[in-house]
Design goal:
There is one protein chain. It contains 16 helices and 16 strands. By secondary structure, it is an alpha/beta fold. α3 links the parallel β3 and β4. The longest helix is centred in the last third of the chain and has 25 residues. The chain is elongated, with a radius of gyration of 27 Å.
C-alpha cells in the first residue's frame, strides 16, 4: 500500500475521523433524483455496512414520505447515528423528534448575503433564533450538530461568535459549510486551524464541488483539525455535487494514514448500488469507482501493468472492490493481447498473435474501441474456432407512443427451434431487450450492466453504434450493434453479446 505521511504532522497516523454521509439528504437534492422510502432504507443499510458513523437520512420536515423513510431507517437497528436535517425552527425539530432520530444537523445561514436576501434578518436576530432552536433540540434529548451555512463567505468574527455561542449553549458538534465551493486548500486549512483552536467541540467540514475542489478542501479541513467530514457517495449533490466519500476516505487513508472506519473493499459495490437506485450514472473517468479507474488501453501502459501493476496503478483495484481491465484499440500492444488470450486459456503461436494484433490495430484505426465480442470474433477466425451464432433474430415488432406502454415482440431462432416472446419496458429499447432476455432465460441469465449510444454520422438519419456490457454472473462481455435504427442497433448489440456468452460457455465445457 502506498502511503504518504505529511511532514510536520507526526500524529496524523493516530487520528480517527468520523464520516457523516449525506447521500440520502444532500445527495437526493441532485436534480433528477427522487427516492422512495424503501430505496432510502436499502441505501442506508449499505452505508451502515460500509461503516459510516453518522447517516443523515433526510429532512423530516420535507414530506410525509420523507418522514416515513427516516422512521424506517431509525428503526432498522443500524449501527450508525441517525440524523435529520433541520432548520432553526421548532416545527423542523418536532418533525425530527417524531422520526426517532438520534441527532439533528441544524443548518443556520450566517453570511451577509444569506441574511440579507434569504432570511431578511440581522445577525442579532439570527443568533437569537439559532440558539433558541438549539436549546429546544437539546432539551428534547437530541444530539445537535450546529452548522453554519455559507460559512466560507461569512464575516470571520460573526462566524466565531455564533459558533462559540452554540457551543456555550451545549451543542455537541459544529460544522463549517463551504456552501458554494469557494474555498481553496490553503484557505480551508487556515479556516479550520483557527476555529478548531478556539472551539471546544468537534468541528466538521461540509464542502461542495462547484470548482472541483471539494475533496481537496475536505482533506485540508482535516489537516487543519476537523474531526468529521460530510460526504456523499459518487459526489452526488446540487450543482457540482458534494465531496465524494470514496475520494475523501481514500485520500485520508493513502496519503495521511488517517482512519475513517470505512470498509474500503465495499466502496465500488456501494457506488454501483447508489448509481442503480438513483439513476445517476457514474462517469467512467470518476476516480476510484469509475469503470475506467483501473482500465488500461495504451500499449505502454498495459505492458507496464502486466509486468508490475504499480507502474500505472497507485493502489491495487481490489483495495476498493474494483477490478483491472484491459481494452483494445489502435493504441493496444501485443503484450495485452497475449495476456488476454492466456486468460481465455488459449496458446496461440507467435504468428497467430501477430495476426490478431494486426486485425485489432486495423479496427482501431477505423476509430473503434474493440469490444470483447469483436476481439473474440477475431480470435475465433485466426485460430479457426468457427464461431457459431446460437441466437438469430427472425422478426422484431415494437409498439410505442403516447399513452401506450412500450411493448416488443421478437421471433428468434435459438439453435434449431423458434421462439416468440414479448416484453414491456420504460421505452421501446428496454421492451425489446426484455423480450430477448425471456428467450434465453434459464440457458443464459443475462443482465445488462451498461448501455451506450454513439451517433456515427450526422443528421436525423444518422447511423448509430450501440455498445452494451452484459454479464451472465460468471463473466462479462461488451458487444456492439450498428444500424440506422437505434432499436435495431440495440437488439443487434444484445444478440451479439448473448451469442458470445453462449459460445464461450460451450467452449469452456469442451475444454
Amino acid at each position: 500500500m502506498f502511503t504518504y505521511i505529511a511532514k510536520g504532522d507526526p500524529d496524523m497516523a493516530r487520528r480517527r475521523i468520523k464520516v457523516l454521509d449525506t447521500t440520502l439528504r444532500d445527495g437526493e437534492q441532485t436534480p433528477g433524483v427522487a427516492l422512495t422510502p424503501e430505496q432510502k432504507l436499502e441505501i442506508a443499510r449499505a452505508l451502515d455496512d460500509l461503516g459510516v458513523d453518522i447517516l443523515e437520512a433526510g429532512a423530516a420536515i420535507s414530506s410525509e414520505g420523507e418522514r416515513k423513510a427516516i422512521k424506517m431507517i431509525s428503526r432498522a437497528g443500524l449501527n450508525a447515528e441517525i440524523c435529520s436535517f433541520v432548520r432553526a425552527a421548532k416545527e423542523d425539530i418536532d418533525a425530527a423528534l417524531a422520526c426517532d432520530v438520534d441527532s439533528v444537523h441544524m443548518v443556520v445561514p450566517t453570511s451577509d448575503i444569506h441574511l440579507k436576501y434569504k432570511l431578511k434578518k440581522t445577525k442579532k436576530e439570527v443568533k437569537e433564533m439559532a440558539l433558541n432552536a438549539a436549546r429546544y433540540a437539546l432539551d428534547h434529548g437530541l444530539i445537535v450538530e450546529f452548522s453554519s451555512e455559507d460559512a466560507s463567505r461569512t464575516e470571520p468574527s460573526f462566524l466565531l461568535d455564533i459558533l462559540s455561542a452554540a457551543v456555550e449553549e451545549g451543542v455537541q458538534r459544529v460544522c463549517i459549510c463551504d456552501t458554494v465551493g469557494v474555498l481553496t486548500y490553503e484557505k480551508s486549512r487556515e479556516l479550520f486551524s483557527n476555529l478548531t483552536a478556539k472551539l471546544k467541540v468537534p468541528v466538521s467540514a461540509h464542502c461542495h464541488n462547484d470548482f472541483g475542489m471539494a475533496t481537496a478542501n475536505t482533506v485540508a479541513a482535516v489537516m487543519g483539525g476537523a474531526s468529521e467530514v460530510h460526504v456523499t457517495i459518487n459526489g452526488l449533490g446540487e450543482r457540482g455535487g458534494n465531496a465524494a466519500l470514496e475520494e475523501v476516505v481514500l485520500a485520508l487513508s493513502q496519503f495521511y494514514d488517517i482512519s475513517t472506519g470505512i470498509k474500503l473493499k465495499l466502496l465500488y459495490s456501494v457506488s454501483n448500488l447508489v448509481e442503480k437506485i438513483t439513476g445517476m450514472p457514474v462517469s467512467p473517468t470518476k476516480p476510484i469507482v469509475g469503470e475506467n479507474a483501473f482500465t488500461h488501453g495504451a500499449g505502454i501502459h498495459t505492458h507496464g501493468v502486466l509486468a508490475e501493476p504499480s507502474t500505472y496503478e497507485p493502489i491495487p483495484p481490489e483495495l476498493v472492490g474494483q477490478h483491472r481491465r484491459l481494452v483494445f484499440g489502435k493504441l493496444s500492444g501485443s503484450h495485452a493481447i497475449e495476456s488476454e488470450l492466456k486468460k481465455m486459456g488459449l496458446k496461440p503461436t507467435k504468428k497467430q498473435i501477430e495476426e490478431i494484433f494486426n486485425q485489432v490495430k486495423q479496427l482501431g484505426d477505423r476509430g473503434k474501441i474493440v469490444t470483447d465480442t469483436e476481439l473474440r470474433a477475431i480470435v475465433d477466425s485466426v485460430l479457426g474456432r468457427g464461431f457459431k451464432e446460437t441466437l438469430k433474430l427472425e422478426e422484431l415488432t415494437v409498439v410505442s407512443g403516447n399513452r401506450v406502454t412500450p411493448t416488443s415482440s421478437v421471433r428468434i431462432k435459438f439453435g434449431d427451434k423458434e421462439f416468440v416472446e414479448s416484453g414491456v419496458g420504460i421505452g421501446p429499447v428496454d421492451a425489446a431487450m426484455n423480450a430477448i432476455r425471456k428467450v434465453v432465460e434459464g440457458t443464459a441469465n443475462v443482465r445488462l450492466v451498461e448501455y451506450h449510444v454513439d451517433a456515427i454520422s450526422g443528421g436525423t438519419d444518422a447511423m448509430v453504434s450501440v455498445v452494451v456490457k452484459l454479464t451472465d454472473g460468471k463473466r462479462m462481455v461488451t458487444a456492439r450493434g450498428t444500424s440506422g435504427d437505434i432499436i435495431m442497433a440495440s437488439v443487434q448489440a444484445m444478440l451479439n453479446g448473448v451469442n458470445r456468452l453462449l459460445w464461450d460457455k460451450q467452449l469452456r465445457v469442451k475444454e
